[in-house]
Amino acid sequence: MSAKFQRLDQRYFDARKELSKRVGTRELWSLIDQWPLYCGIANLGRYLAVSDILRQTLEVPGDVVEFGSWRGANLMLLAKLLRIFDPHGCKRVHCFDSFKGLTEFAPEDGQATQFSGLYKGALDELKAVIELYELQDEIEIHQGVIESSLPPFIEAQKEASFSFIYCDTDLYKSTKLILELLHPRLSKHGVFVFDEWNYKDYPGETVAAKEFLETYGDKYEVMHVRHARQPTMYLRKLSY
């Protein structure tokens, strides 16, 4: 929870808990199909921001990849947006996640160790939803700790390039590795998108981004996301 919005969010969380009690249990799809009715404004802003940034990269060659997918909401959003905006293109969406929550901490992560195990995913449920929407050929899941799964993928897939890379691992080591390994694979005008840049609870992501920009800052344009709390920043590649 961002300190800027802490009081506002707490009032909202308390109010929606009370509303849940009043309306009672509902059938799953009767809620999902009416999602704008129930979705929080902050979450709606997030989805719109991700959509806006992704659409900026539709003409950029290369796949889409998300690091840190948790339950898979953002992953499915990206895949469904491509189905809508680029249905006949060859872009695929890659998911890298251990589905065991936050585990690999470094000194740069500070007090984020208190969140160990948070964001543990539900892989079987995610696979079932992917099958429901027949996106099996458009999404590839790479299960495992990113520090172990990404290097062999990059080594084996010499041809792989990317247009949109979403960094949502929260932590220093994984973010640093993602930036170092995928900078050469990110196409010109492609983007690195950061979910927790400049975020107090997870300083490691910011430290890794700043270190990367010390070396490659002349090759990127640093972009603020105006209408959403998260993602918080993205880098647009200007040159190799």
- Encode the helix/strand succession as letters: HHHHEHEHEHEHEHEE
The strands making up the biggest β-sheet line up spatially as: 3-2-1-4-5-7-6
Silhouette? globular
Largest sheet: 7 strands, mixed
Uncertain stretches of 5 or more adjacent residues? none
CATH class of the largest domain, please?
Answer: Alpha Beta
By DSSP, the count of extended strands is 7
Class derived from helix and strand content: alpha/beta
Level-2 CATH architecture of the largest domain: 3-Layer(aba) Sandwich
Average of pLDDT: 95
Radius of gyration: 18 Å
Beta-strand content estimate: 15-25%
- Fraction of residues in H or I helices: 40-55%
User: What is the CATH topology of the largest domain?
Assistant: Rossmann fold
CATH superfamily membership of the largest domain: Vaccinia Virus protein VP39
Number of self-contained structural domains: 2
Number of helices: 9
Quick recap:
By secondary structure, the chain is α/β, with parallel strands linked by helices.
Secondary structure: elements and pairs:
Elements: H1 6-23, H2 28-32, H3 35-38, H4 41-56, E1 63-67, H5 73-85, E2 93-97, H6 123-132, E3 139-143, H7 146-156, E4 162-167, H8 172-182, E5 186-194, H9 203-216, E6 220-224, E7 233-237
Parallel strand pairs: 1-2, 1-4, 2-3, 4-5
Antiparallel strand pairs: 5-7, 6-7
